[in-house]
Amino acid sequence: MTKNPNVLGWVDETIALCKPDKVVWLDGSQEQLDELRRQACETGEMIKLNEEKLPGCYLHRTAVNDVARVEHRTFICTKKKEDAGPINNWMDPDEMKAKLTKMYDGVMKGRTMYVIPYCMGPIGSKLSKVGVEVTDSIYVVLNMDIMTRMGKQALEHLGDTSNDFVRGLHSKADVDEENRYIVQFPEDNAIWSINSGYGGNVLLGKKCFALRIASYQGKNEGWMAEHMLILGIENPQGETKYVAAAFPSACGKTNLAMLIPPEVYKKQGYKVWTVGDDIAWMRIGEDGRLWAINPEAGFFGVAPGTNDKSNPNALATTKRGTIFTNVAHNLDDNTIWWEGLDKNPPENAVDWKGNPWNGKTSAEKGANPNSRFTAPAKNCPCISDKFNDVNGVPISAIVFGGRRAKTAPLVYQSRDWAHGVFVGSIMASETTAAATGAVGVVRRDPMAMRPFCGYHMGDYFGHWLEMGERLGDKAPKIFNVNWFRTDDEGHFIWPGFGDNMRVLMWILARCEGKADAVETPIGYEPKPEDINIEGLEGITADTVRGLLDVDKDLWREEAAGIEDFYKQFGDRLPKEMAHQLEVLKKNLQ
Ligand code: GTP
Ligand code: SPV
Ligand code: MN
Question: Does the domain made of 226-296+385-587 have the CATH classification 3.90.228.20?
């Protein structure tokens, strides 16, 4: 399929190491993929769902011990420990390779090795990059087919001589969690993943390449790889402005990216278009502005909570050609179900663990809280016509946000780019089921990149500052949002979902110099009456005032927490960041 000696040489090495019975190169043809679907159904790896109701859709259950990313087993292996920084797990690359080589040796005996060439980003775009993943999992192949542009087209994009591709070696091995490793070697353009069969651990184009490796490449090559959705808001005159937003895992990116405008905007003719829901690669264009592409071709979205009210566009996207992972299986009509899909759970079902399950009587959940759908972007009713554009889209605003019951207000704007980098760096959010470990614990998650930054976080802040200097007055404006403030009973105060557009509208108005703001100790905020609440039940200007409240006591505690967090970066914390913290402390006096 290719003459590229770098690709051929590397694949030969992996064959010699893993010793598969058979090697299959994925060309991307439907015949080849259909044959793999057939095989996966034969072995029980996948279950074919109701062809009338869910054409081309399949269900897969992972091992019960393998349902989320594993941050404690994820490593950044740079030659020097300090280059991985204090937040990443590190091991010497030679030591790690020696350790894992023993585990890969002969691991594919009796199995088939699949070689998946794939392109992250539109074919032919200068912003796109190629990876090759070898794996022993058909589930991985079929997911990569949805999530990336894979097959021959990717090898053609790479060309016959280039060595600029990411080498991804995956084996599910025995799915042994004690020996599970997700390892990035940024200096070698390589990823080694073993003993998992789940999502972000094994679809190596996604978090491992498009964020961890790509963030490192971006630093060296002068661009940015970020954990951001990209959406366009089209006004009644037909002009579209683009926003990129970084929220931690399971904090609302897919939902915001596909939002349905509230009636008040819909009737005026506003439309929202999805460019991406998880990752943005951004470069400075010839016009000096920041341009973004979505490197992915599909959505690996959180299933629970997705329904025809919260996210009808996502639900519509999953009706064809979709793989469902770890949701409940409705045996009556061979469809699927998850918590929050509707109020009618199936009685005759199988839960995500594979046990008989009655949704009406069981106390157990039918779907894992981190169950997912893998759906082609082209199914999405609101997919942007710029989705495949080789130039990407120009970004007007960057939005950070987390899941905070208190402290962070509904929205605020940074005073300038450097302050915006500070605002991103102090993000904190409650942990979710997207990674193993405790859920609901507040932790610092700078730019939503804590689990995904492939190098020293202090240098990463420095890279953001440098990008701002290069962008100058063409830099996007930077904001922070929080949809998750709760009242005394723990209920969300802000309605969220489609109504988040009301906040985005203030953000865009600020970018165009058309809205006022008030100065607070943490940045600029809207006047409560500048958030449009027309048609919202139970929300008054006073509710908005409450949501915008900056509690100085809480923020003084916050500043102390930031100071602690910053300490670990030592002299690799840019001076500008320390200065911004001093300004915040002074503003809070
Ligand atoms: P990853 O794919 O893990 O990166 O997650 P994500 O950031 O795309 O999160 P997603 O949009 O899938 O939302 C995760 C959870 O948050 C779902 O259960 C949603 O229902 C919920 N959620 C999303 N937006 C809102 C919102 O505006 N308000 C509230 N209360 N919940 C929301
Ligand atoms: C996330 O956890 O941010 C995800 C899911 O988008 S995974 O691909 O598993 O990383
Ligand atoms: Mn994500």
Answer: yes
